[in-house]
């Protein structure tokens, strides 16, 4: 196992439904993501981007093949073991933010830490630190409905970041934002990648994202077409 690889899919397939209605969402995918990289996953609607991110994020399980996260083969893990792995190594950012509406920004960001063995003071310090990092310290007692889309996505990024993950997966993080706000969210993800060396995988159709992230994986009908990250890493 190459320890430069943070996440790897080996011959992974995923199907939805059964019989005549069965859909092949991922078709024998082989793909590696290297530590410290920022990569964009590009493909038409329905090509399998979200499915791929959900498998990498241990939110769903593949039907065939192996998903390896930080050297750990997740294939035979229980749902509880997967949840623990996700909590310690992975942050997920969704297109529609997925914040809990009845919790403030602070409480949304705090949530993942409540599942960890951490004292209150350390939790408070860490939540304040990440809210600072995403530029939202002065909004920490606001509810999602009291914030703009860009601010809500910053809260979601802070929540993804709070457990110090090695990998952040962002499924179309700018799709519900205007282009200026989307560019700000991309700046934030790029700076986390640069400053904290967190590996980031973003799926997107957004030209703001495609113009700025140079490592591209193209997916079509559940198959990887051109893995420019492999080329990039091969040349590096
Ligand atoms: N829960 C599900 N049940 C049945 N089919 C599904 C389910 N989720 C996804 N699919 C199908 O699997 C394929 C891949 O879907 P996926 O959501 O991964 O694509 P995507 O590239 O993320 O699309 P989009 O850009 O529209 O979000 C599509 O044909 C989709 O219709």
UniProtKB/TrEMBL annotation:
InterPro entries cross-referenced by the UniProt entry: AAA+_ATPase, ABC_transporter-like_ATP-bd, ABC_transporter-like_CS, ABC_transpr_LolD-like, MacB-like_ATP-bd, P-loop_NTPase
SUPFAM superfamilies tied to this protein: P-loop containing nucleoside triphosphate hydrolases
Domain of life: Bacteria
GO MF annotations in UniProt: ATP binding; ATP hydrolysis activity; transmembrane transporter activity
Keywords: ATP-binding, Nucleotide-binding, Transport
Record family assignment: Belongs to the ABC transporter superfamily. Macrolide exporter (TC 3.A.1.122) family.
Protein name: ABC transporter related protein
Source organism of this protein record: Chlorobium phaeobacteroides (strain DSM 266 / SMG 266 / 2430)
